[in-house]
């Protein structure tokens, strides 16, 4: 037979597999791999002999090396296998190799079963059933990789043991991305329109509340023969010329089981504590952004925290809270988690910290003591300061005196006291003489100044068993109660008259709770003017009075339940925020000066 001329020759017709699950084509040129007759693999196939098991690896390696060398030479000459994968959409073999599905049938491979993920010596990955069908088409002896043309045998198919094969759906991901983009754009529109609507509703409600309460204003005569002007919003118009403070409702949310709150004015975040829904609901924190229209984010607290009684916002995006679980906890609003806990000997009812020294924190305890901690060394308190009585410390404020010294204001049933922040005093100083006929349940001031305070009192309850029943009143105040119109209480201005002396000033009256220790607040209004705010029990809304005269200023939108907590937070940009919390609702007002 005459020798064949060297050089490139036309390829024979393309071999097309007819199986519906195989959608690829492979073309071969005549040569070493063209007709299965020129290589050792084809000769072994024709004789039906299988290589011995003991020589599989070594023979296979030598055979593969020889084939690779032959392929390299033949490709250089243009006579080797020309391989091409055909995938839907006209994708190339390279794209098919990188696809997360089998590049033969374009179906997802699996971690087990007939179409489990498998590879051949060249490293390309297919579904096992596709490789086996391809070998069957080639006579069960050997075949070439549909992507690179390297030969393989049935024994060369290697199962890849993957615990899970994840196949992303690119179409669904695109649809999801499109939906998210559309949702974000819609949220921006809703947020802008929601803010505008809130301002319109707030202005309307503010005017209607002023008119409605004005009609109900009356002079009340009590059993002691004195008469009092019940606080109302009727004086708001008259006081507008003397006080420019204005409240605009920014946010109103429905809550279930809310207790106390804190406002981070710099980051415009609100923290509110409460109980999760359900009979055995856990105590949780709810984090609300004043800039977002989304609902509050619920954050689980450690199981030993129990009821949170006070929240103090610290600089740098953290918050301090005191709880009945004998814990003083530091909460990070960046990671939404409790990062530090100080163990206490008894339950804590109040907490505080200085703005200029947030590492030093204070806890007011149920037995009348005030403990001082350094958050960098939380294992034990720096100081333990004993109070003038065993009554629980329900309020703490970190302030300074006229000389700039750091002080701590506290309040218990006997009244407000002043403490040395460094623990150098043997005992605190009682600001007013003890009045055995009344019980102090709230103290408002405008930190860091301690020049102007307002203490709230209610008549002392007549317990037949004496003072031994007083602690039970503290535990009663843990739960909100339907106390109707409450009882007549008083709010008393306390003004500084010297570096260490204070005097009682003006007094006004309102309806207060018989058992709960509701919070009050002092609201700066610019030009060294302030308002006093308290949740009136009969009005079930916040009423404000001008300081220091305690003249009636205005009333805010009432709630269905009594007000439990009031917090004011000033903003560095000017103005501030007033938050009021009841058992089922949270309101946040912007205070315009």
TrEMBL record:
<dbReference type="GO" id="GO:0036297">
    <property type="term" value="P:interstrand cross-link repair"/>
</dbReference>
<dbReference type="InterPro" id="IPR001841">
    <property type="entry name" value="Znf_RING"/>
</dbReference>
<dbReference type="GO" id="GO:0016604">
    <property type="term" value="C:nuclear body"/>
</dbReference>
<dbReference type="InterPro" id="IPR013083">
    <property type="entry name" value="Znf_RING/FYVE/PHD"/>
</dbReference>
<dbReference type="InterPro" id="IPR037381">
    <property type="entry name" value="RFWD3"/>
</dbReference>
<keyword id="KW-0863">Zinc-finger</keyword>
<keyword id="KW-0862">Zinc</keyword>
<protein>
    <recommendedName>
        <fullName>RING-type E3 ubiquitin transferase</fullName>
        <ecNumber>2.3.2.27</ecNumber>
    </recommendedName>
</protein>
<feature type="region of interest" description="Disordered">
    <location>
        <begin position="1"/>
        <end position="94"/>
    </location>
</feature>
<feature type="compositionally biased region" description="Acidic residues">
    <location>
        <begin position="49"/>
        <end position="75"/>
    </location>
</feature>
<keyword id="KW-0479">Metal-binding</keyword>
<feature type="compositionally biased region" description="Acidic residues">
    <location>
        <begin position="17"/>
        <end position="38"/>
    </location>
</feature>
<dbReference type="InterPro" id="IPR056527">
    <property type="entry name" value="WD40_RFWD3"/>
</dbReference>
<dbReference type="GO" id="GO:0016567">
    <property type="term" value="P:protein ubiquitination"/>
</dbReference>
<dbReference type="GO" id="GO:0061630">
    <property type="term" value="F:ubiquitin protein ligase activity"/>
</dbReference>
<keyword id="KW-0853">WD repeat</keyword>
<dbReference type="GO" id="GO:0008270">
    <property type="term" value="F:zinc ion binding"/>
</dbReference>
<feature type="domain" description="RING-type">
    <location>
        <begin position="102"/>
        <end position="148"/>
    </location>
</feature>
<dbReference type="Pfam" id="PF13639">
    <property type="entry name" value="zf-RING_2"/>
</dbReference>
<dbReference type="Pfam" id="PF23419">
    <property type="entry name" value="WD40_RFWD3"/>
</dbReference>
<dbReference type="InterPro" id="IPR036322">
    <property type="entry name" value="WD40_repeat_dom_sf"/>
</dbReference>
<dbReference type="InterPro" id="IPR015943">
    <property type="entry name" value="WD40/YVTN_repeat-like_dom_sf"/>
</dbReference>
């Amino acid at each position: 037979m005459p020798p064949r001329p060297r050089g490139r020759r036309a390829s024979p017709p393309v071999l097309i597999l007819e199986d519906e699950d195989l959608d690829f084509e492979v073309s071969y040129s005549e040569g070493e791999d063209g007709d299965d007759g020129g290589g050792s693999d084809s000769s072994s196939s024709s004789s039906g002999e299988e290589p011995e098991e003991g020589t599989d690896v070594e023979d296979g390696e030598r055979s593969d090396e020889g084939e690779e060398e032959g392929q390299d030479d033949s490709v250089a000459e243009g006579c080797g296998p020309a391989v091409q994968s055909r995938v839907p959409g006209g994708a190339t073999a390279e794209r098919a190799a990188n696809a997360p599905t089998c590049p033969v049938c374009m179906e997802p491979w699996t971690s087990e079963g007939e179409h489990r993920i498998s590879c051949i010596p060249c490293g390309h990955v297919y579904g096992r059933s596709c490789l086996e069908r391809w070998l069957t088409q080639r006579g069960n002896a050997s075949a070439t990789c549909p992507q690179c043309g390297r030969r393989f045998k049935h024994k060369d198919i290697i199962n890849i043991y993957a615990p899970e094969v994840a196949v992303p759906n690119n179409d669904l991901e695109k649809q999801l991305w499109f939906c998210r983009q559309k949702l974000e754009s819609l949220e921006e529109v809703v947020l802008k329109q929601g803010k505008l609507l809130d301002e319109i509703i707030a202005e309307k409600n503010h005017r209607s509340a002023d008119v409605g309460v004005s009609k109900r204003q009356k002079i009340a005569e009590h059993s002691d023969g004195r008469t009092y002007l019940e606080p109302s919003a009727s004086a708001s118009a008259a006081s507008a010329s003397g006080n420019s403070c204005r409240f605009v409702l920014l946010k109103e949310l429905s809550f279930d089981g809310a207790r106390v709150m804190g406002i981070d004015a710099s980051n415009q975040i609100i923290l509110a504590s409460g109980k999760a829904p359900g009979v055995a609901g856990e105590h949780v924190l709810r984090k609300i952004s004043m800039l977002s229209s989304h609902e509050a984010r619920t954050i689980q607290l450690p199981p030993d925290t129990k009821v949170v009684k006070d929240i103090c916002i610290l600089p740098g995006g953290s918050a301090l809270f005191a709880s009945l679980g004998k814990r003083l906890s530091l909460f990070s609003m960046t990671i939404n988690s409790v990062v530090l806990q100080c163990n206490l000997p008894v339950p804590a009812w109040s907490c505080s910290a200085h703005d200029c020294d947030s590492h030093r924190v204070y806890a007011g305890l149920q037995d009348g003591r005030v403990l001082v901690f350094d958050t960098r060394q939380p294992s034990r308190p720096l100081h333990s300061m004993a109070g003038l009585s065993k009554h629980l410390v329900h309020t703490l404020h970190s302030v300074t005196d006229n000389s700039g010294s750091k002080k701590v204001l506290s309040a218990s049933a006997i009244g407000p006291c002043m403490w040395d922040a460094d623990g150098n005093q043997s005992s605190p100083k009682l600001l007013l003489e003890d009045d055995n006929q009344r019980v102090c349940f709230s103290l408002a001031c405008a930190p860091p100044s301690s020049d102007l305070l307002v203490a709230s009192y209610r008549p002392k309850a007549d317990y037949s068993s004496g003072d031994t029943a007083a602690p039970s009143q503290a535990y009663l105040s843990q739960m909100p109660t339907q106390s109707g119109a409450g009882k007549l209480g008083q709010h008393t201005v306390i003004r500084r008259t010297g570096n260490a002396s204070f005097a009682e000033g003006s007094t006004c009256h309102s309806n207060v709770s018989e058992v709960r220790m509701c919070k009050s607040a002092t609201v700066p209004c610019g030009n060294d003017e302030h308002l006093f705010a308290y949740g009136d029990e009969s009005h079930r809304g916040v009423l404000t009075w001008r300081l220091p005269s305690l003249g009636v200023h205005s009333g805010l939108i009432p709630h269905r339940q009594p007000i439990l907590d009031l917090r004011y937070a000033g903003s560095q940009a000017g103005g501030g925020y007033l938050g009021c919390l009841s058992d089922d609702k949270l309101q946040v007002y912007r205070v315009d000066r």
